[in-house]
Amino acid sequence: MCSPALEAVGSRMEKILLEIYDSLYKAFGPLHWWPGETPFEVSIGAILTQNTAWTNVEKAINRLKEHNLLSPECIRDIDINLLGEMIRSSGYYNQKAKKLKAFVDFLFLQYEGSMELMKETEMWTLRHELLQVNGIGMETADSIILYACYKPIFVVDAYTRRFLSRHKLIEEDAGYTHIQKLFMNNLPSDVAIYNEYHALIVQLGKELCSKTLPRCNICPLFVVITPFMGFFLAETIGVEETETEPVEVE
DNA sequence: ATCCTGTAAA
DNA sequence: TTTACGGGAT
Q1: CATH number of the domain encompassing residue A47
Q2: Which nucleotides of strand C lie within 7 A of protein CB?
Q3: Total domains present in chain A
Q4: Which nucleotide is nearest to A95 (CA to C1')?
Q5: Is A97 inside any structural domain?
Q6: If you measure CA to C1', which residue is closest to nucleotide C3?
Q7: Is residue A89 assigned to a domain?
Q8: pLDDT tens digits, residue range A165-210?
Q9: Separation of CA A47 and C1' B1 in angstroms?
Q10: Fewest 10 Å CB contacts: which of A43, A104, A144, A245?
């Protein structure tokens, strides 16, 4: 941001993003995501939860725990088909067994199987490395960096794109990196805030800003983004957008 | 654009 | 009986 105009846009966006955060926090927070779990367990969870409900991931993780398999060494050494059986409940179990193997192989190759050692790597360098691992895309890499390594990177997901798009803060087809920059360029670089913000967005997406039948009537963001309310109402409630007539809500 | 796949809510 | 899920690879 160098011109005064862009700077003004940036500061306004900062205000909006903080306002959204406050509203979501008052409604849902604090969510304390991944509390009391080891960085390794968080990483495994980040892979297993790909396009899968978290409740199904918990079962898989508990199963690994019960069998004392939740360590880099055990995941590395276990038969891949048996591993698949252990994590069956998380879906895509054959692919995910392969992905878990790929992750621990990387962990041993680069960091002697130590998450602590991995954590010492600079954030963007680590991200670049993780993206080379088969089965780890941008969202999973960022989840590991934020929730397992406690580094200030913002996690973007389908919920994030959906609610921002509905509020006309991004284009519907905005890319991952664009959305990530929107947050990271307009918010303080703070692990605790990025942690809670993403968790709050997920909660919003699941409970209210759902794919079909979003419950806008009870949404904490209903009154937040005033300049965009016209678009917001038009798209989510199905009212025709007009130039002159203000939209009426009961 | 399709495939990978179990689970639970709608 | 569908729908959606804390995606990624091909």
Answers
A1: 1.10.340.30
A2: 3-10
A3: 1
A4: B4
A5: yes
A6: A212
A7: yes
A8: 999 999 999 999 999 999 999 999 999 999 999 999 999 999 999 9
A9: 23
A10: A245
At residue A140, does pLDDT exceed 80?
yes
- Nearest residue to B6 via alpha carbon and C1': A91
**Statement: the CB of A37 is under 7 Å from strand C:** no
Cα A226 from chain centre: 26
In this prediction, residue A156 has a pLDDT band, given cuts at 50, 70 and 90, of very high
Instruction: Point out the residue nearest to B7 (C-alpha to C1').
Output: A56
CA distance readout (Å), A228 to A18, A162, A217, A234 = 16, 15, 16, 10
Q: pLDDT band for position A29 (50/70/90)?
A: confident
Say how far apart CA A240 and CA A234 lie, in whole Å: 6
Structure tokens at A105: 């192989």
C-alpha distance from residue A248 to each of A164, A167, A223, A242, A245 (Å): 23, 18, 14, 11, 9
Domain that residue A128 falls in: 39-148
pLDDT at residue A5 above 80? no
A75 lies in a domain? yes
